[in-house]
Amino acid sequence: MTVKQLVGKLHRWLGLASGLLVFVVAITGCILAFELEIKSILRPFQYVEPVPNATVLPPSRLKAIAEKQVPGKPAKGVNYGEWGRSVNVPFYGADPDYYYQVYLNPYTGEVLKVVDEEGDFFHFILHGHYYLWLPEEIGQPVVAYGTLLFTLMLISGLVLWWPKKWNRAHRDKSFKIKWKAQWRRVNYDLHNVPGFYALSFSLILAITGMIFGIEWLSNSIYWSTTGGKTLPVYQQPLSDSTATPRFADPVDRVWQRFYRHKTATNSLYISCPELRSESIAVSINHRPGTYYKNDYYTFDRYTLKELRGEGPYFGAYGKADFGDKLRRMNYDIHVGAILSWPGKILAFCASLVCASLPVTGFIIWWGRRKKKAVKPQRRVSKPQAA
């Protein structure tokens, strides 16, 4: 058995083992690629008429109004969007799972909409993409290691695709689809040619996706991109619960520090601590629609002293080193948002090709299997009459 034949067997069995998983994860990825753009059309309550020089309500007021809409559940924070956006207040928890968002007019506090995100179509699709609609502790490793099999399949597919010779005939066979050929040949070309063109983007999608679900891979990539730093477990710094409270409205006071410097094109999120030891977290997003270009700050809720944390999700984006910036970018690279619309289109197309590969690959395997099952009949010559 040659090396290429061995790679062919590996490619086939990896495909059969992970094909259905890859199809579901890739097709849900296609749907999620333009989630924000679709929601911007379907959710007009995300927008308000901007009022020049008007005063917006502080977090304490908006939190109190929102909590009346979701009785018995505490608001997690208040998110002030860019100019012309409504404010949204999230509520979420586990056991039982719930996730609500209350949209408010930032100037008047008028309730624009209460959305049960657990019942949202895109939230349902997201669960399929992350966990295959299984419990998280089961679904996440299944998706992560299934993606690892898919990555190996992409590499083995490149080996099988590689032309024996680089003459014109072999180049045409590897780079072009023969649409006028029989359907089996067209299917074969649809498996090989788009798979090759989407290979680099598919690998990026797979690797950035695995960073969310495979700890050893995540730690290894962080170590290699930061010059040997260990990725710390995220822990939000705690407030000193033994300290005497100095302020009756600590969240509003922290908010005032930052909101006076807020521009029309960035967003500001401030958390509303529940526990005595919980601190106040602030994030300023300089590029709404993405998540990487954030400045993160944490404050003691009693003294308003700034607290320091370790890892990529603390401090200003501009002061982070290369490895920490790259880790912050991971999600936006995964969904293509790092390159705006062109990146999302590339992510959508690559996901669509990834979803097609198990289908066209299965058809190729099934066709060859049927051929082997049909044995050629021997011709028996009839004796000639005397």
UniProtKB/TrEMBL annotation:
<keyword id="KW-0812">Transmembrane</keyword>
<feature type="transmembrane region" description="Helical">
    <location>
        <begin position="12"/>
        <end position="34"/>
    </location>
</feature>
<dbReference type="Pfam" id="PF03413">
    <property type="entry name" value="PepSY"/>
</dbReference>
<protein>
    <submittedName>
        <fullName>PepSY-associated TM helix domain-containing protein</fullName>
    </submittedName>
</protein>
<feature type="domain" description="PepSY">
    <location>
        <begin position="57"/>
        <end position="114"/>
    </location>
</feature>
<dbReference type="InterPro" id="IPR005625">
    <property type="entry name" value="PepSY-ass_TM"/>
</dbReference>
<keyword id="KW-0472">Membrane</keyword>
<feature type="transmembrane region" description="Helical">
    <location>
        <begin position="194"/>
        <end position="214"/>
    </location>
</feature>
<dbReference type="InterPro" id="IPR025711">
    <property type="entry name" value="PepSY"/>
</dbReference>
<feature type="transmembrane region" description="Helical">
    <location>
        <begin position="345"/>
        <end position="366"/>
    </location>
</feature>
<dbReference type="Pfam" id="PF03929">
    <property type="entry name" value="PepSY_TM"/>
</dbReference>
<feature type="transmembrane region" description="Helical">
    <location>
        <begin position="142"/>
        <end position="163"/>
    </location>
</feature>
<keyword id="KW-1133">Transmembrane helix</keyword>
